[in-house]
Write a structure and sequence with these properties.
By secondary structure, this protein is of the alpha/beta class. The protein has helices spanning about 30-40, 50-65, 90-105, 145-150, 160-180, 195-215, 225, 230-240, 255-260, 265-270, 275-290, 300-310, 310-325, 340-350, 380-390, 445-450; strands at about 45, 75-80, 110-115, 125-130, 185-190, 220, 325-340, 360-375, 395-400, 405-415, 425-430, 440. Helix 2 links the parallel strand 1 (about 45) and strand 2 (about 75-80). Helix 2 (about 50-65) runs parallel beside helix 3 (about 90-105), helix 2 packs across helix 8 (about 230-240) and helix 10 crosses helix 11. It is globular and about 75 Å long. The relative contact order is 0.12.
């Protein structure tokens, strides 16, 4: 896969542009050189994320395409959306009712794509490609929630926007590179002027990717940054043009939802769509059954926030799902390897396997194996776990400390200290079924080495 190309800053060519919200269009992502590179491309495209920022940019382009370096008849321009498969219905409704009619009126090509399967080798499926769009196809063959539920994990802060890269950037890039025939593609992003760090981060990583690829695949422009339009500006512009208060688009399972949308607004949305809230609550419970630290948010759980918000409908649907669906007994094994000492990295470079270079107080790689031992109703797998505990002469640990609903586990190996590495843990746990049996590459060897003689 070829990645996005961003440009080195040309600080002398552009000064700060202020907006009514006080935002800036920083030179390092809004240089004249970058703008000229974009305008020189024959294939120009907008990554349309369905939310208020990219909608504002779409409206501005429709109003005056030449100001953005786009042909007046839009013959060199297209709009592309990558579907994660888990959007709020009001987002889809706003786009269908207010944005698609404008695209039809102007004859703007609009393409909707999605991952065709879990592995990259499955490629991309085009859900719609037309200048007369009438429907937002909310999901493709393989969705973000499909992946999360099979993995038994929630999206992680530590991974940044990895899920977005996999379910959005991958699909769009594959499509655009195929269309371009090897030519540079001009790409517009709707980062607003309050989101400058996102563009800076993208520049940093893309410079590395670009150097590795040896050529320029995409010429990027951030018009909202260049114009100095902050969040209040884009919201006001969309309200003036469409007459609606459009929300920012994000997945209900996003761990950054407190950033993507103010938390009170997010909780209000979950009250409006309790079925979506219940699905995310179910995923969080599953993830935390496999790992106490796998809550949706850094410092607390979605369950606690929804409970505090007294969203009884979402909680009722969540509890009903737990009672009605198939459950499993999983066996979880983790091997926590010690990390490399700083001086080792300096002396021995990127790789070193010498035991003396490891420090048990430094976290290394964590190797996980998950296996489904038994499936059945919630009652059946609970009884199986208790019988197994008796056979193993181990207690069933019922804990509500991590999650309010409570999690039942039977440990056969317990880590002596959560901050000591070179250790293992092994336990059985009951949770909703569906997690695929999987072990990290190299797990068997690492497990054998750390448990030798035990």
């Amino acid at each position: 896969m070829t990645s996005l190309t961003l440009f080195e800053p040309d600080l002398d060519e552009v000064g700060p542009v202020t907006s009514s919200s006080g935002g800036l269009a920083p030179a390092e992502v809004a240089s004249t050189a970058a703008l000229e590179s974009f305008r020189a491309t024959k294939h120009k495209s907008l990554n349309f994320g369905l939310g208020v920022d990219s909608t504002a940019l779409t409206l501005a382009i429709i109003n005056d395409p030449a100001a953005f370096g786009i042909a007046k008849d839009f013959s060199d321009f297209s709009i592309v959306t990558a579907m994660t498969g888990f959007e709020f219905p009001d987002t889809i409704a706003d786009v269908e009712n207010h944005v698609l009619p404008l695209l039809r009126e102007k004859g703007i090509r609009y393409t909707q794509v999605a991952r065709a399967g879990r592995p990259d080798s499955a490629g991309v499926e085009v859900l719609s490609d037309t200048t007369n769009p009438g429907k937002v196809f909310s999901r493709g063959p393989w969705t973000l929630m499909d992946e999360m539920e099979e993995n038994g994990t929630v999206p992680q802060y530590a991974g940044g926007h990895a899920c977005s890269q996999k379910h959005k950037a991958f699909s769009i890039e594959r499509l655009q590179l195929q269309r371009s025939g090897g030519q540079t593609v001009g790409k517009l992003f709707g980062y607003n002027a309050d989101e400058h760090p996102r563009a800076v981060k993208a520049n940093k990583f893309q410079t590395i990717r670009n150097k590795k690829a040896g050529y320029e695949t995409f010429a990027l422009d951030y018009p909202l940054l260049r114009l100095g339009w902050g969040r209040e500006d884009v919201q006001g512009y969309v309200k003036d043009r469409l007459g609606i208060d459009m929300a920012k688009s994000y997945c209900p399972v996003c761990p950054f939802s407190g950033v993507c949308s103010p938390q009170p607004d997010h909780l209000k949305r979950l009250r409006k769509y309790p079925d979506l809230a219940a699905r995310v609550l179910r995923l969080e419970y599953l993830a935390m059954a496999l790992n106490d630290n796998m809550s949706l948010y850094k410092e607390d759980t979605l369950f606690s926030r929804v409970t505090d918000d007294q969203n009884t409908e979402a909680l009722g649907q969540f509890n009903a799902r737990l009672d009605e669906e198939t459950w499993a007994v999983y066996r979880l094994r983790r091997a926590y390897t010690p990390g490399r000492r700083p001086e080792c990295k300096t002396a021995h470079g990127d790789r070193c396997t010498k035991p003396e270079c490891r420090d048990s107080s430094i976290k290394g790689t964590v190797y996980r194996s998950v296996e489904t031992v038994r499936t059945g109703s919630r009652t059946e797998v609970g009884a199986f776990l208790h019988n197994a505990a008796s056979a193993l002469n181990r207690p069933v640990e019922h804990s509500t400390k991590a999650h309010g609903v409570g999690i039942d586990r039977v440990h056969t190996r317990v880590r002596p200290d959560s901050k000591t590495y070179g250790t293992v843990e092994d336990f059985y746990v009951t949770a909703p079924a569906g997690v695929q049996d999987k072990a990290r590459d190299g797990f068997a060897g690492v497990w054998a080495a750390l448990t030798a003689g035990q």
